[in-house]
Design a protein that fits this description.
about 425 residues, alpha+beta, Anthranilate synthase, ten-stranded antiparallel sheet, nine-stranded antiparallel sheet, 10 helices, 22 strands, about 25% helix
Length: about 425
């Protein structure tokens, strides 16, 4: 789906940011008059949301009801228009509300061509493999990439030393797993066009959940919480291998990756963090019997799917709040991992690795984890952020390479490169 404008919004902060947003939207939905002749998923009254990683973050979380939503389901489109204290008026054509994004080539995907310059989100649950791409080489402290100037927060040696410090704390028993992240400031000589970035991401990474809302834009492969008809689905990714030269892992390498003790240990912590937290909200949990390999451009991931039957009254945002932050983006145990992150990564994560998505008036929705992303911090500036899970057996050089590989989607979108 893509969305335009803001008919209503609420900003929240602190420990209760999720609960406060849910309560405000619930009150709005109770007062709203909704004429939904389509009765499709995401038709009717919906809210888009982007939340901050930490309760202490100065960046507010926000839930927004857009003025218009264009959705496409199985090739059929629907349009929702919201009025503020007055009857909404449907346009003669959806193109009247959603002008085409700047096109670099013709596309048959109406939603991909209709991304507005306001708040928008689009995407699907990751469901398949696409050709692998090329991970970036080691990035020097300051480098020109095409027309972009890149400024990593750390040199390779500095980041690798942070990894060593995190591993030392793990060996001391302070945590089992810690997820550190790196930031790269990208400056363009031209103004950045969010609509064009979203269009490029959607075309290059069709099996990810592509989003642009407030100051965050990206293409996440990880669905934190999707709910529909009383069921909840979560896809857990933890354990990654960069892939070079627009290819994919050889089958022998993929088998070794799937059975690697370090990768499976990191993955197990992430899966357990989801299943243990779902127990209070759902029943009849089902988990992939074995991790499978999810192939994405530039990376292959160990993945597991988790599903369950929700208890009555539980919304998708309730689930996202309960699961955030999972061990896939924080660590295990969560409290100890977050303490280590605060010590070694003092910069506020903002919207990175946080829930971003939508919810309807019934509470159903999709909340992805804001990964493969950037914060749009200026007219010509974006701050890319990516992380990797660390366990006792982690290698600092390999971990740095993995983090750089995870910046590839946004770098490609900023440069206009193609994946695959």
């Amino acid at each position: 789906m893509v969305a335009l404008g803001s008919a209503w919004s609420v900003r929240t902060t602190g420990e209760q940011r999720f609960a406060a947003a849910r309560a405000a939207f619930t009150q709005l939905a109770a007062r709203a008059r909704v004429d939904d002749e389509v009765r499709a998923r995401a038709s009717g009254l919906i809210a888009l949301g982007s939340f901050s990683y930490a309760a202490s973050s100065p960046r507010p979380s926000r839930l927004t009801v857009p003025q218009a939503v264009l959705g496409v389901i199985e090739g059929e489109a629907f349009l929702t228009v919201v009025g503020i204290e007055e009857e909404p008026t449907l346009p003669d054509s959806w193109q009247d509300l959603f002008p085409a994004a700047p096109a670099e080539e013709e596309s048959d995907d109406a939603a991909a061509r209709a991304v507005p310059t306001g708040a928008a989100s689009s995407g699907t649950v990751p469901s398949g493999a696409v050709p692998s791409g090329t991970p970036p080489p080691g990035t020097p402290p300051s480098a020109h990439t095409g027309e972009l100037t890149l400024e990593p927060a750390h040199t390779p040696a500095e980041y690798q030393q942070l990894v060593r410090e995190a591993i030392a704390r793990i060996r001391d028993g302070q945590a089992h797993k810690v997820v550190l992240s790196e930031r790269i400031t990208a400056t363009s000589p031209q103004s950045l066009d969010p609509a064009l970035l979203v269009t490029r991401l959607a075309r290059a990474y069709p099996s990810t959940w592509v989003y642009f809302l407030d100051d965050v834009v990206g293409a996440s492969p990880e669905m934190l919480a999707q709910t529909q008809d009383g069921r909840v689905f979560s896809r857990v990714l933890a354990g990654s291998r960069p892939v070079a030269d627009d290819g994919e892992l050889e089958e022998a390498d993929r088998r070794a990756f799937r059975t690697d003790a370090k990768e499976r240990s990191e993955h197990l912590y992430a899966v357990e963090s989801v299943t243990s937290r779902l127990e209070d909200l759902a029943a009849q949990l089902e988990v992939s019997p074995e991790p499978f390999v999810l192939r994405l451009p530039g990376l292959e991931h160990l993945a597991s799917d988790v599903s369950a039957q929700l208890r009555a009254g539980v919304t998708s945002l309730d689930v996202a709040a309960r699961l955030h932050p999972s061990a896939a983006v924080s660590g295990t145990s969560r409290e100890q991992a977050d303490q280590i992150i605060a010590a070694l990564e003092p910069a506020d994560r903002g919207g990175y690795a946080s829930p971003v998505g939508w919810m309807d008036a019934r509470g159903d929705g999709q909340w992805a984890i804001a990964l493969r992303m950037a914060h749009l911090t200026g007219e010509r500036e974006a701050v890319l952020q990516a992380g990797g899970g660390l366990v006792e057996a982690s290698d600092p050089v390999a971990e740095h390479a993995e983090v750089l590989a995870k910046t590839r989607p946004m770098l490609r979108a900023l440069r206009g490169d193609r994946a695959g």
